[in-house]
Amino acid sequence: MEITPFQLVQPSRIFFGANKSLRIGTIAAEYGRTVLLVHGKKSFLQSPLSIHILNSFTDAGCRIYEYEVHCEPSPQLVDAAVAEYKSHGIEVVCAVGGGSVIDAGKAVSAMLPLDRTVQDFLEGIGTVSHPGTKVPFIAVPTTAGTGTEATYNAVLSQTGINGFKKSLRHVNLMPTIAVVDPLLAMSCPSDVAGACGMDALTQLLESFISTKATPVTDCLALEGLSRLKDNLITVSTKENTIHAQSNVSYAALLSGITLANAGLCVVHGFASSIGGMFDIPHGIVCGTLLAPCMRMTIDRLLEQGNAENSLRKFADAGQMLFGIKKDSVESACLDFADALDKLTSTLNIPKLSQFGIRDADCDTIIEKTELKNNPAILSKDDLRKIVLSRL
Question: What is the pLDDT of residue 306?
């Protein structure tokens, strides 16, 4: 069988494992000793490893400037950080935190060499393409979900009726180094861990069924799904273990690599439209809409009658994630959709109405939602049914 041509983009180096974060100072010093450390207020400062991470910079002879990110990054936040530290001779940007923190750090590293607002370079809004220049960037996730430590886009948002959720994107903006230490995610609240894990699951599944999937992203996605089996529920409880957390952190890392190379589907189309209009965590949008989006896609593929390859992927994913037997492709796909519904319920993923979303918002949401690389074409009525099912 002929191999489909592909390219694979990933961080130059990846450090994975417990206590790997204690080497951040030494790693950063390879690129320079003037460091901008971007972190969240809670996720970093409340971590028992934070003092050791700070000491690692001191021990490596680094001078640290700190910048806190309290919410999903906006263009204004990035511009403010760049303006504050542009004259400080920053040689390395290191972001330690959740997806929002890493996206903020990624964007700051990309804008420090330039003299324009970041909004000029955002997809669908800006007027110019980013040249790909950046200050060396180290991404250190404290959650397991977004996979942004292994992607080359930074998502920036502005919430409101005319809001947006858009990417600053260039292949050179892939983090220079990704340091994934599962211990950093162990202190994540169980409900947040569940939503983050559903984000990773969504990214693995969507990149697997994407029309731009490749043989290598398929292998990585299936590996990631196998690591989520059982472990996703465990990290979402107070009985979390380092074994379970390591597996989910690894899956999240793989989800970043697969989405960067294969793209995503309609769930993330909703995440962009809804996330731009409402103040709602990204992982919750993905987690609450994953099951109905997959069910609708499966239904439409079954109607086509010529989508056996796409349907087989759903069956493969169901077997890998839930152990669903493939007695027939159709029954396996439908059982997979049922299992996703059950998982959503088990993890207590909130419904959209809890974040102020109402029936009246559906038309605006649907108009702004892209199908991306979804394997089935969904109508506006299909999209409306999906949203209404999770209000």
Answer: 86
Mean of the per-residue pLDDT values for the chain?
95
Output b/e per residue, 60-69; b: 16+ Cβ within 10 A.
Answer: bebebeebbb
Alpha helix locations (H) across the chain?
24-29, 50-59, 75-85, 99-111, 182-185, 190-209, 215-228, 231-235, 242-262, 266-277, 282-304, 308-322, 329-346, 362-368, 380-389
Of 125, 114, 181, 190, nearest in space to 149 by CA: 181
- Tell me if 235 sits within 8 A of 193, measured CB to CB: yes
Measured distance CA(253)–CA(8) in Å, rounded? 14
Question: Which of 100, 89, 4, 127 minimizes the C-alpha distance to 44?
Answer: 100
Of the candidates 261, 257, 205, 262, which has an alpha carbon nearest to the alpha carbon of residue 228?
205
Name, in order, each residue with C-beta under 8 angstroms of 229's C-beta and a sequence gap of 6 or more.
Answer: 320, 321, 322, 323
Neighbouring CB atoms inside 10 A of 169's CB total: 18
3-state secondary structure at position 138: strand
Determine the Cα–Cα distance for residues 73 and 119; give it in Å rounded to an integer.
12
The letter for the amino acid at 125 is I
pTM of the entire structure? 0.96
Q: What is the DSSP letter of 350?
A: P
Residues of the chain short of pLDDT 70, as ranges, are: 1, 43
| Phi-psi label, residue 97: left if phi above 0, alpha if psi -120 to 50, beta otherwise | left
CA distances from 271 to 165, 292, 365, 387 (A): 9, 14, 10, 11
Tens of pLDDT along 232-279? 999 999 899 999 999 999 999 999 999 999 999 999 999 999 999 999
Q: At what angle do helices 308-322 and 282-304 cross, to 10 degrees?
A: 130
